[in-house]
């Protein structure tokens, strides 16, 4: 579980660094080594940060955000900039953010083997 949290913090840090860039595509290699054996397993995750192909509208918002540019969204997770998970939607392109405080958030979307991270601004 701690390894997943470390990966999430890394992804959030990458997102924060590139929030104001137009497009950043990255491929990250994740390696897992079992504590009981010396076997390790690697796989790649495709990450798009602030890509123009995917948009979240309206942004800023005070109610519901909608994702466009993806055929399907398997999962959306909304995080504070400190890395706290505050909202989740599965198999939906919309998320209600009206109950969240004003501020900047990171929206992590999973679509197939693609991971997209976008900035969301809640402003009431």
Question: How are the SSEs placed, and which strands pair?
Answer:
Blueprint: H1 2-17, E1 24-33, E2 40-49, E3 55-57, E4 64-68, E5 75-80, E6 85-90, E7 94-96, E8 103-111, E9 114-122
Parallel strand pairs: 2-9
Antiparallel strand pairs: 1-2, 3-4, 4-7, 5-6, 5-8, 8-9
Summarize the structure.
The protein has one helix and nine strands; from the N terminus they run αβββββββββ. The protein has 124 residues and is mostly beta strands. The strands form two sheets. Strands 1-2-9-8-5-6 form a six-stranded mixed β-sheet, with helices on one face. Strands 3-4-7 form a three-stranded antiparallel β-sheet, with no helix packed on it.
Task: Summarize this structure as a short list of keywords or feature phrases.
124 residues; mainly beta; globular
CATH fold field value: Immunoglobulin-like
**Proportion of beta-strand residues:** over 45%
The second-level CATH architecture is Sandwich
Structural class designation: mainly beta
Number of strands: 9
So what's the overall shape?
globular
* Largest sheet: spatial strand order: 1-2-9-8-5-6
- Contiguous low-pLDDT stretches (5 residues minimum) are 20-34
Q: At the first level of CATH, what is the class?
A: Mainly Beta
Spatial separation of the terminal alpha carbons: 35 Å
Mean pLDDT reading: 75
Count of the separate structural domains: 1
What is the alpha-carbon Rg in Å? 15 Å
Continuous helix count: 1
* Biggest β-sheet description: 6 strands, mixed
CATH homologous superfamily assignment:
Immunoglobulins
């Amino acid at each position: 579980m701690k390894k997943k949290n470390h990966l999430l913090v890394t992804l959030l840090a990458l997102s924060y660094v590139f929030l104001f860039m137009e497009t950043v595509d990255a491929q990250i290699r994740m390696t897992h080594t079992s504590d009981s054996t010396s076997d390790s397993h690697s796989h790649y995750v495709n990450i798009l940060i602030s890509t123009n192909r995917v948009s979240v509208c309206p942004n800023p918002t005070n109610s519901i955000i909608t994702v466009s540019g993806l055929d399907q969204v398997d999962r959306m997770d909304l995080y504070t900039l400190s890395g706290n998970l505050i909202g989740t939607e599965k198999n939906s392109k919309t998320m209600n953010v009206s109950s969240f405080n004003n501020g900047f958030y990171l929206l992590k979307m999973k679509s197939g083997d693609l991971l997209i991270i976008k900035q969301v601004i809640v402003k009431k």
